[in-house]
Structure formats: C-alpha cells, structure tokens
Amino acid sequence: MPKAFVCGHPIAHSRSPSIHGYWLARHAISGSYTTIDVPPAEFGAFLLRVRSGDFVGGNITIPHKEAAFAAVDRCDAAAQAIGAVNTVWREGSMLWGANTDAYGFAANLDDRAPGWDLGRRIAVVLGAGGAARAVLHALRERGFDEIRIVNRTPERAAALAAHFGPRFSAHDMEATDRLLSDATLLVNTTPAGMHGSQELPVDVAHLPGGALVTDIVYVPLETPLLAAARKRRLATVDGLGMLLHQAVPGFERWFGVRPDVTPELRARIEADIAAPQAA
Ligand code: NAP
Fold first, then answer.
1. Could you tell me if the CB of 151 is within 6 A of ligand 1?
2. Which residue, 24, 41, 48, 103, is the most exposed by fewest CB within 10 angstroms?
3. Are 38 and 9 in contact (CB under 8 A)?
4. What are 52-86's pLDDT values in tens digits?
C-alpha cells in the first residue's frame, strides 16, 4: 500500500490529510497520507526512512522546507529558484524535491480570476518570507512587467529583489500607498490578518478600480484586507485555493492519478476552517 506523509513541527493542525484523504477515497486508492511530527533534530533521520522506502513520498512543511532543499539529490526548477522543497518522492536511488507553492498560487488565480496574468501587469507583494519567494517565482514565470516587494524589514525585501532580478524592486511599508496607485495586483503574503490578528496598514483605496487583491492567508477565509477590497468593489481571491492546488502535483506523483480541486473538496475544507476549533 503506497504511504505518503506531511511532516513538520508542529503539524497537528495541518489540513493536508483532509485534502489527500478526500482524493484517496474519491479515486478508490488503497493508500495512506498521515501527519508526522518531526522536530528539527530528527529531520535527517526521518529523511533516511523516506530514502529507504518506508514511504512513496510526502509533503514537507515548516520548519523543514529549507533543510529538505539542502538534503534532496535533485529538485525541480521552482524549488531551485525558491530555495525550499515542500514535496519529496523517490526515483530509483534518488530523492527528488519540488516546490509546488508557486504552482498552487498561480493555479488558484487561474481558477478564480481567469486572465489575471494578461495585459500590463504590475504587482505589489506584501512580505518577504518563505511564502513570498514562491509568489515572486510565480509572478516571474507569468511574465509580470514589474513586481514591487514591500516588507516591514526592508533589507529582506532588498535581498529578494536582488535574487529575483531586474523587474523586482524593494520598498518599505511607508511607500505602499504610492506603489498601489497603478498596480494591477496586490498580494498579501504576511500572516497579518490571520485569526483576527493585527491588520496590515494598507489602504486599498489607493488601488485602481480594475485591480485584483489576493491574500494567501486563508483563516479566516475573508481576511480584513479582502473585506476592505470587496467593500471597494475590487475583485478578490482568497488563499484557500492555493493550499488545495499546491497539493495536486504531490498526489499525482505518489499515487499515479492527477486529482481535481472540486467544489466538494473546497466546501469540506471551508467547513473545517469555519468549525469552532479551527486553528
Ligand atoms: P515567514 O517566512 O515567517 O514570513 C513572514 C513575512 O511576513 C515576513 O516578511 C514578515 O516581515 C512579514 N510579517 C509578519 N508579521 C507581519 C505584520 N504584522 N505586519 C507586516 N508584516 C509582517 O512566513 P511564511 O512562511 O512566508 O508564511 C506567511 C503566511 O503565508 C502564513 O500565514 C502562512 O500560513 C501563509 N501561507 C499560505 C499558503 C497557502 O497555501 N495559502 C502557503 C504558504 C504560506 P519581517 O521580514 O519584517 O519579519
């Protein structure tokens, strides 16, 4: 029976088992997908288990994505550009790694806002952490004309702009209002707004009328940023679809079937998020 996993630390609140469990049942595959809590000191030993064939592969999440990138034998172009691996599998004696977050980000927008990457494209990206790297890679792949990275710690934004190339620029938070005035896409990659936490000091009133606003935070589904954008009648896309779509390539790799992100799957995870114990 093919066995896959998601490993991280902590890992209890991961929604990945619900997603992969839904697809296993839908395709009548007698496989498994389980959460495994692996503290950083034990990650190397855990990867040895993967290499030895205990699993067909799995997902790697916080805080192991960079360690996995360093440990795999081969990785795809996205992982190479992002510097982090979230999906692993074995091919012969090789351990392979991929990063599917950039794919998930773009596939979500393709699904919910078709045409988002057409015409003149100027993006403002809030945040310069691990998730921002995946979003920046996706925007570069889709040929965005200009990508403005805004971060609380401007040095981190500058490092990412230098890494990703000439169409990228770095800015501090004070510049945001001005940067929004001709933007076609605003992306929040910071955890601000999650679980009703501190909101971003960003005023969507400065965006042009045709702009699209997306938040990769998905708890709550409608973050304060998305609520403000919707109130201004701007197009919005929430972050849940990114989570669902990023899971597709891994499932296909491990279980041999390319699954669909169906309305039923989305409704299940939405219900989970809305449940009182949701974290
Ligand atoms: P990270 O590496 O810790 O980076 C966080 C970034 O947000 C940093 O640039 C940080 O700024 C900034 N930040 C944090 N709190 C802030 C605040 N209150 N105001 C302004 N900026 C703030 O985190 P990450 O791995 O990139 O994850 C970020 C979020 O994305 C998390 O909420 C995560 O759940 C979500 N996510 C969603 C998906 C999905 O599938 N939808 C996938 C991956 C991640 P400094 O540099 O100044 O510290």
1. yes
2. 41
3. yes
4. 999 999 999 999 999 999 999 999 999 999 999 99
233: left (phi over 0), alpha (psi -120 to 50) or beta: left
CA of 166 to the centre of ligand 1 (A): 24
Q: Within the chain, what is the greatest distance between any pair of CA atoms?
A: 56
Contacts of 49 (CB under 8 A, 6+ apart): 55
- Asked whether 128 and 156 are in contact (CB, 8 A), the reply is yes
- CA dihedral (17, 99, 147, 163) in degrees, to 10, reads 140
Question: pTM, whole model, 2 decimals?
Answer: 0.96
Residues contacting residue 142 through CB under 8 Å, at least 6 positions apart: 106, 117, 121
In angstroms, the CA 216 to CA 194 distance is 10
